[in-house]
Fold:
Amino acid sequence: MVQTVLEIVVEGATGLESVHLIQGLLPYPVVSIRDSDGNFYYDSENKKAVDLNGGSNPVWRVLFEFNIDIVEAQQKQLHLIVRLESHRIVPCCPDKYVGEVRVPIEELVKDFGDADEKKSTTRPVLNKKGKARGSLTFTYKFGRTLDHPPAALPQPADGNPVAQIPQPANGNPVAQIPQRYNDGHPIVKAAVGGVTSGLVTSLSNLIRDSL
Structure:
């Protein structure tokens, strides 16, 4: 499986809707990649620090990275989701949802094309009712490719590696003679020695008889 590094830099937002009654907006981005059923891909949600001073116009300039399979992301119609939450100063209360931006990965791939440099885009921030309440700007880049090595060959329980038989061009396996049966074995040496001795004796007798 080949994966590509998707770099996302959430620059900031403008004109966000206030969701609090007694405190100011303390927004932060939460970035993920999901399918239409809400399942996470490649990583869980990634959160970044709160902008304590930006209010409705926060500036973050924070980097998020995902190692994604572009083919899979397109086939499964995955989306990049940037959700904005606002931190509550009361510890017992959960943070409040501000809105989110959803962009199909396929659209990002198409718009990026063969570019080498990062691209910038600004999208509307939609609240729970689907209405635009401000805008979000982020840059993105499809960077280096990660080639995953093939899985290791299965090994037996006793720890001895599985024997690999080399194959010739015609596809017929080559017989491998174990070392203990080659000419280093004492029995083989004796047999070879006996044959050699017999040949030398016969040759000597033949030469002697021909003289």
